[in-house]
Design brief:
The chain has 14 helices and nine strands. With 434 residues, it is an alpha+beta fold. The strands form three sheets. Strands 2-4-5-9-8 form a five-stranded mixed β-sheet, with helices on one face. Strands 1-3 form a two-stranded antiparallel sheet. Strands 6-7 form a two-stranded antiparallel sheet. A hairpin with a 3-residue loop joins strand 4 and strand 5.
């Protein structure tokens, strides 16, 4: 037998063996590949995923869309679209973009540890994301006027469907934690880090989903936007005014809990325009409010509780704008945070008042007024809001003295594209490495 014939024969045998092997469709619930490529995460078992099985025809579309890359939009893009684009342009973009952003997250639910997958709330959140994915793909490529109207209704339903995503997921994570404690299982570093990684990506996807749906509904769907706003974006958002608004809200809440609150000393400088000009830029004011309110809550709680030892210090706030950035520094003299706890500040199972316990979780759930220290989601979510448009949130502390929180924002709208999760072949490796 000639060498070429031998090579052809070997190639034919290899192809036959390849076609006879089971293929992986990235669905652990029915995967026949052993070991499954989606198993072996941390030290989890190789049992099938506990999430309910999805119809193969639906799951194949999820896998297909997970291979597309989402298109991040800058604040400038959102403003231009809101002022120039038509409902049909928005329809054509969102009909593909939203399923693309959801597909990766849908796959990542299967990477979670079984003890979290089996929680009813996490299954509900996965199913809600799957429902939105299917709803939007059901619309035709060439939309009629009736389709455009129905699309706005579908986006309204999407917004309602995902309203409680954070609360439901928090409930699932807390139940997982307490269940592991009851079973005397250690919440090891690997599980905690993998869950943290997933929640960051899930919640960033939720922020982007809310942004896309709200922009369409406020610009094209009949929702009434605030004066001067383009959808959710205020082209002339006043940073100092938003700080004062968030401070006032936090002060009222502090009064309800402690009967008093610290005063504020606010200084700002505008190095991009005239020094005494207001600090204005294009931004989503509700995102700013969320960040400022959460930081003020933490600073006020620490300051009031420390003031029992003496006079109550003021909160010091300084704002600076340059050609590229806006930086907000919020400082308190509330005693600071021990260095050993600094790495916990952005963990979802930890609050600035300490690790979340069952008694604290029950008290938060049954309270008639919002707590000053909740379930440990305030700072992590605030950092995601800051990072969404390429900013950041960081904290430094001097234990025994106080804490400084820095919020960094892009002052140029064309330099502030969305920062959104991208699913790739390496994503599962990220979970295995956690």
């Amino acid at each position: 037998m000639r060498f070429s014939q031998i090579r052809l024969y070997a190639s034919s045998i290899a192809k036959l063996e390849a076609t006879s092997k089971p293929t992986c469709d990235l669905n652990p619930a029915c995967c026949k590949v052993v070991p499954c490529c989606m198993k072996g995460l941390i030290n989890y078992s190789s049992q099938p995923a506990l999430l309910c099985e999805v119809e193969p025809s639906v799951w194949s579309r999820v896998v297909k869309y997970s291979k597309y890359r989402p298109i991040p939009l800058s604040i400038e893009n959102f403003l231009h679209h809101g002022e120039e684009a038509t409902p049909r342009v928005s329809y054509n973009f969102l009909r593909r973009e939203i399923p693309t952003r959801l597909a990766g997250v849908l796959l990542e639910f299967s990477f979670l540890p079984p003890i979290l997958q089996k929680q009813t709330a996490i299954q509900a959140v996965r199913d809600e994301h799957l429902e939105t994915f299917q709803d939007l793909l059901a619309f035709p490529n060439n939309a009629s006027d009736a389709d455009l109207e129905s699309f706005s209704e579908a986006l309204t339903n999407t917004r309602l469907r995902h309203t409680d995503t954070v609360q439901k997921t928090a409930e699932a994570v807390m139940k997982m934690k307490f269940e592991m404690i009851d079973q005397k299982l250690e919440v090891d570093q690997g599980i905690e880090t993998a869950v943290q990684y997933f929640l960051d990506r899930l919640y960033m996807t939720k922020i982007s989903l809310s942004m896309l749906t709200n922009q369409h509904l406020y610009v094209h769907g009949g929702n009434i936007a605030k004066p001067r706003h383009v959808g959710q974006i205020d082209p002339h958002c006043d940073v100092v005014a938003e700080i004062r608004r968030a401070y006032s809200k936090a002060a009222r809440l502090c009064d309800q809990h402690y009967g008093t609150h610290p005063e504020i000393n606010l200084v700002y400088s505008n190095r991009a325009e005239a020094s005494d000009d207001p600090i204005l830029f294009a931004y989503v004011s509700s995102h700013l409010h969320h960040m400022f309110f959460e930081v003020f809550k933490n600073s006020m709680r620490a300051t009031v509780e420390r003031s029992k030892e003496g006079n109550m210090a003021k909160l010091e706030v300084r704002v600076s704008k340059t050609d590229t950035d806006i930086t907000i520094k919020i400082s308190d003299l509330g005693g600071g945070i021990p260095r050993s706890q600094m790495s916990n500040l952005f963990k979802y199972m930890y609050t600035s008042a300490g690790r979340v316990g069952k008694a604290h979780a029950d008290a938060v759930k049954s309270s008639s007024i919002p707590p000053m220290a909740g379930l440990g989601y305030g700072l992590p979510l605030s950092r995601l809001y800051a990072r969404y448009f390429q900013g950041d949130l960081d904290i430094s502390s001097m234990h025994g003295v106080g804490t400084d929180c820095f919020i960094y924002l892009r002052s140029m709208q064309d330099k502030a594209p969305e920062q959104i999760p991208v699913f790739s072949k390496n994503t599962s490796k990220k979970y295995r490495e956690k």
